[in-house]
Amino acid sequence: MxxxxxxxxxxxxxxxxxxxxxxxxxxxxxxxxxxxxAAMCPxxxxxxxxxxxxxxxxxxxxxxxxxxxxxNHTGKGARVSIWPDGAWQTPIGAIPIDAALAARIATEAHAxxxxxxxxxxxxxxxxxxxxxxxxxxRQPALRLVPIVVxxxxxxxxxxxxxxxxxxxxxxxxxxxxxxxxxxxxxLPEPEARRLDALAxxxxxxxxxxxxxxxxxxxxxxxxxxxxxxxxLAYAHARGAGPxxxxxxxxxxxxxxxxxxVVGYAGAVVPAA
Length: 272
Known about the structure:
The chain has helices at residues 17-27, 46-57, 99-108, 132-138, 154-168, 189-203, 208-217, 225-237, 251-255; strands spanning 3-4, 36-41, 65-71, 80-82, 87-90, 93-96, 115-117, 143-149, 176-180, 185-187, 244-250, 261-270. By secondary structure, it is α/β, with parallel strands linked by helices. The longest helix has 15 residues, at 154-168.
């Protein structure tokens, strides 16, 4: 079993437990927390997207088991890469992997080409790591299943969502599935907001095919569209409704540069 060291601590988010606690105290929303089936959170540096991510997680009664799906930014590893066991080290401690659930997901997803237990896709990937201290702050007994998702087609995204639903049935039925995604990248703010509105309207239908059709058809650089589509398929298989948009922002909101922004959105799928 392997302990994954942090790859972006001190850059994307604070590198010490004290500084993480201070940052989260500023970011934490004041909203009632309710059970959710699934969610979508952004994954940029906390100074850019931390408030949007916490607007989502602050509304959720985070359970002990959380599955996080993210896009593959590095190009390494399997097409669907499931970290198998051990732990992820963070500045606030080691977060254990739910090895039994990871193995079950790998078994249920075996029909998807390239879906397997794998570590290579995770070692330099930031898009799950930036959310882990936030989740651990919301749930001290957190157990994690990290999954990096490559460029799947719509059928494969739906198959992955259904595999997750089968895997969590029974003892893991309270698990939360999170899709980690940013929205449009490096566009003038009016164009980013226009394209992101199209993608978010499709997301709010709850239909993974509609989401991918809009994102691909309009060439929207929503990096986690595939994880989000799998999350929607999972939520539907669990009998939940469509997601509810919680927050939207751009990098321009953080530092004022509106000429070339990245969009960030957060959504929650409430428990049925």
